[in-house]
Design brief:
With 82 residues, this protein is α+β, with helices and mostly antiparallel strands. It has four helices and two strands; from the N terminus they run αβαβαα. The protein has helices at 2-6, 31-34, 53-59, 64-74; strands at residues 23-27, 48-52. A two-stranded antiparallel ribbon has the order 1-2.
Length: 82
């Protein structure tokens, strides 16, 4: 998680730089959907990121493809900006 912050990652929805003390550790592929099938992998560091609480509420239990479409719309359809 520290590397995510140090590398200058940004929140998917807002585009704001992530701050470790203001963001939440979140599953990219939702634990509620994938834990039964991928029990050992769902908590892997490769399935985690930091996002703001407001973004996490918007993301809820959506699949990454659905959530990224929402994020793309928030960035005016600009894929490079996203």
């Amino acid at each position: 998680m520290g590397l995510i912050v140090c590398e200058g990652s940004k929140d998917f929805l807002t585009g704001q730089p992530v701050e470790i003390n203001k963001c939440q550790d979140d599953h990219i592929f939702p634990k509620s959907i994938h834990s039964e099938k991928y029990d050992n992998l769902v908590d892997s560091i490769l399935n985690r990121t930091l996002i703001y609480q407001t973004t996490n509420r918007c993301k809820s239990n959506k699949l990454p493809a659905d959530f990224l479409n929402d994020c793309l719309a928030k960035h005016g359809g600009n894929e490079e900006q996203l």
